[in-house]
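Minutes, project check-in
Item: structure for the 142-residue chain
Input as provided by the requester:
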Amino acid sequence: MPYTLIYSSQATFVLSDEEISVLLDRARELNAADDVTGLLVYVRFDGDRAAFVQVLEGEENAVERTYARIQRDELHTDLLVLARAGIQQRRFSQWSMKFIRMEQADLQHVFTGSKPADERSPLADRAEAERVIAAASPADQP
């Protein structure tokens, strides 16, 4: 049975386009080797603050190994697991790591009519993170 882990984290610094490209190349290589699929959403709030929400899917041991590697990465702080569970099927089966970049204005659109529980860290709640995931990825297409 497939397994998923969803987490959010604060970035220790705002990444440049080149740094994002390097990060994605490495993640996709490692994920493909372990048959891990998923989505990475990078949210840039302003010039000095950014965050991640990520969905990892695959065999449980492979997903947990991937998350353990992420926990050791100095790029992340304040990691928060939002979900760990067996799933019926993968949502991002065509992606070793789908990537979506969002800006503060994109988040404002996602939360139109409501405010996240913690405006400083709007990805720290599972329901709010799921709203961001849904807005970032309306379909599982490469």
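Outcome recorded: The radius of gyration is 14 Å.
No further action items on this chain.
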